[in-house]
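In response to reviewer comment 3 from the previous cycle, which asked for concrete evidence that the modeling workflow produces usable outputs, we include below a single protein chain processed end to end. The sequence was submitted unchanged, and the resulting structure tokens are shown without manual editing.
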Amino acid sequence: MSRRTLGEVLEDRNNSFNAVRLLAAAAVFISHIFLIVPVGNHHQPLDDTAYDLGQLAVNVFFFLSGLMLSRSYALKPDLSGFIAARALRIFPGLLVCGALIAWLIAPFSTSLSLAEHFTNPATLLYPLLMPVLFSQPHLPGAFLFGMEPGQVNIPLWTIKYELLAYLAFVSIPLLKVFGSRRAMAALSMAFGILLVVSYHTHAFDASMAGSIIRFGFCFALGMLAFTFRFQIVLNWPIAILGIILAIWLSPTAVGQVASIIAFAYFAATLGGTFIPLLTRATRQADISYGIYLYSFPIQQALLARFGTSVWMVLLMSVAAALTTICLAYLSWHWVERPALSLKRLFGGEKARAQQLAVPSQDAT
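The workflow returned the following structure tokens.
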């Protein structure tokens, strides 16, 4: 494969970034198998590195979010349209998912009778609470099996940080530093330094600030990558060597920073690579968000309840994966894509931003 810059890959409609998101969602699914099954030692893949497999996948999601949102705003620099698009991408899927969890999935994994379940106020309110409280609402009597009993949808805890990243992103064009290489470099460096300090001091381990620093660095790195997109050459040997170096540096103070950078570059390189079957399939249906929404409650209903032996874990994992993919596919076609089509109702059409071809004035 000829070497291309990140900018060239982003402008190629046949890129594989949807496939990368799908693979990241699959990595989270696999990581949660080890977390919730009632057998085994519950060590997740890559536990001995800076971030385990699921955490690495979430880091990649935030990096891609910073990268793609920067591109989206550069194509259409309209804040009202940008905000509406983000809301339409997140909340309709969340609302429908909440209803399906409470009224369709949870009844198969509850200790209550169906009458008690459906008349419980928590069941009725769950679809309205989940888009606001994300992973916090509970369904009494539901999902009481496995190593995470009572947890309905743990992965949704990251949505509030995604929304915080969106709010922070809005401030960048308001401050007139969108596309500024210096500003993006300074922002990424600041978060990177905070991440190193956090590792040394453990001051933010048990607080929301620790997650803001981690995800902030990932997101800022994505914005920085977009700003330098025509200078970043994607190369597989470099990507592989970067991951090896990051794993070697895992026990050090810069291990977390090295891991995020290495896997971000790996994700970008993979995004510029044709992946048989996945690249074309994910251009037609981006089911990564649906997998993120539905995988954990389905795993709770099947794996946590019935995965009492190695063979049952394998069987229930396949069943959970197939069920999740089906619901994610329906979510994309019946909820997410129709909701995204409403973007045209918000904000006026504007000419393409000059940033796509012309460096910012303070680029040097």
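Residues 4-356 form one domain. We consider this sufficient to address the reviewer's concern, and the full set will be provided in the supplementary archive.
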